[in-house]
Structures are given as structure tokens and as C-alpha cells.
């Protein structure tokens, strides 16, 4: 009880807590913590930026948008946590995410090594995992050969990469 009273007193010094009584608990949760519902499949492409080798029509992007549209609510939260660092989007959803969610083509580690060795590029994207820069809402996505491989790699990354800087 003492901790709650200390929190209330501290909060009240910054913002008159009585002013919050006009909101329901659900409205406060929404305003302070963001949306629980994540996105609608039909509007995904409208709120995502594609760059560095990808466009909205790229096969990998078409697959990604289909996969994102098929995610369960728990998978959407895990994906959002993986890419942005937060399990919820801000009030207004993807449309107001700042910076905008950006998907870029990730060169395979083998291709990068081969080109630096002078052996020429060797695309083995199916061996690589997607990576992120959460501070910029930036997803680096390899051009996987199939939607199924992309789905498995995304699920692995979003589940195993939570709270880790290994996939940055």
C-alpha cells in the first residue's frame, strides 16, 4: 500500500491525477500502453516502408505481408516486440509508428563473405535469420526461397531473439 501511495504522490506532482478520472481504465491502458489489436492484413503495405532492394511487389515482401496477415494475436505481439522493442503499437497503430516500420533486403552472410573474398556472390538466404534494429523499427529480411522457409525463420527469430541483441 505504501508503494502505491508513493507512486500516486509522485505522479500527482507531475500531473494532477484527479484529471485522469474522466478516463475509463481501458482508455488509460490504451493511451499509456498502446493498442492491443495489432494490424489488419489489407492495410499492412500502406504503413510499411520498403527499401534497399525491396519494393511492395518484391516476392519476399509479398510473402512477408501474407505471413504477417496470418499471424495469431500472440505471434503479432511477438513480431512487434522483436521489431520495435515493444509488444504493442502506439495509439493509432502502424500508421503512426515513428520511425516507420522499414523492411530492407538482408544480404546473406555467405554472400557478403564470398564477395569480399573475390569469389563472387553466393546467395544462401535460406540459411540466415532476419535481424532488426529496434531503435529504428528496421527489419533486415533475407530473400528466402519460399514462404514456408520465411515463416519458420521469422517464428524462430521472434521467439528465440526476444530480449537479445544477437539478431541486431
From TrEMBL:
One of its GO terms (biological process) is proteasome-mediated ubiquitin-dependent protein catabolic process. Residues 1-168 form the HECT domain. This is HECT-type E3 ubiquitin transferase. It is an enzyme of class 2 (transferase). Signal peptide: none annotated. Pfam families: HECT. The active site is at 135 (glycyl thioester intermediate). Keywords: Transferase, Ubl conjugation pathway. One of its GO terms (molecular function) is ubiquitin protein ligase activity. Its EC number is 2.3.2.26. Belongs to the UPL family. K-HECT subfamily. It comes from Lotus japonicus. The keyword RNA-binding does not apply. It catalyses: S-ubiquitinyl-[E2 ubiquitin-conjugating enzyme]-L-cysteine + [acceptor protein]-L-lysine = [E2 ubiquitin-conjugating enzyme]-L-cysteine + N(6)-ubiquitinyl-[acceptor protein]-L-lysine. InterPro entries: HECT_dom, Hect_E3_ubiquitin_ligase, HECTD1/TRIP12-like.
Amino acid at each position: 500500500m505504501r508503494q502505491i501511495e508513493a507512486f500516486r504522490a509522485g505522479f500527482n506532482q507531475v500531473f494532477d491525477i484527479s484529471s485522469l478520472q474522466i478516463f475509463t481504465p481501458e482508455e488509460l491502458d490504451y493511451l499509456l500502453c498502446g493498442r492491443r489489436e495489432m494490424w489488419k492484413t489489407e492495410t499492412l503495405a500502406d504503413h510499411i516502408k520498403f527499401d534497399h532492394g525491396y519494393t511492395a511487389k518484391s516476392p519476399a515482401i509479398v510473402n512477408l505481408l501474407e505471413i504477417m496477415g496470418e499471424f495469431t494475436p500472440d505471434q503479432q505481439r511477438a513480431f512487434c516486440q522483436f521489431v520495435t522493442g515493444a509488444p504493442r503499437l502506439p495509439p493509432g497503430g502502424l500508421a503512426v509508428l515513428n520511425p516507420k516500420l522499414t523492411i530492407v533486403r538482408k544480404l546473406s552472410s555467405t554472400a557478403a563473405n564470398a564477395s569480399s573474398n573475390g569469389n563472387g556472390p553466393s546467395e544462401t538466404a535460406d540459411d540466415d535469420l532476419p535481424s532488426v534494429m529496434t531503435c529504428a523499427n528496421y527489419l533486415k529480411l533475407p530473400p528466402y526461397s519460399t514462404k514456408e522457409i520465411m515463416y519458420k525463420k521469422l517464428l524462430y527469430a521472434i521467439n528465440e531473439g526476444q530480449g537479445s541483441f544477437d539478431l541486431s
